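quick q for whoever's on today - can somebody do inverse folding on this one?? i tried earlier but teh output was garbage lol. tokens:
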């Protein structure tokens, strides 16, 4: 499973990255979590509001920081 956190490096982006790593542990799944801060790459997903979370190429959340529990539910 490939998880990408999209954002320029703001505080919310960092919180989403940490929440995503916590969610992977909670869900007990094997996943690679990466951070994407390149604006051109972010725009490829059509995201207008960051932070955003992409799961296997599909935008799951945009413009908010969900809890680790919310993210974990999507990973199961």
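ok took a stab at it. sequence:
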């Amino acid at each position: 499973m490939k998880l990408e956190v999209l954002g320029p490096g703001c505080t919310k982006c960092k919180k989403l990255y940490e929440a995503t790593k916590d969610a992977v542990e909670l869900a007990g799944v094997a996943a690679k979590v990466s951070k994407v801060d390149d604006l051109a790459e972010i725009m490829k997903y059509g995201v207008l509001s960051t932070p955003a979370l992409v799961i296997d190429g599909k935008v799951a959340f945009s413009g908010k920081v969900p809890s680790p529990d919310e993210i974990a539910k999507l990973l199961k």
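fwiw The chain has three helices and four strands. also The mean pLDDT is 95. so keep that in mind when u check it
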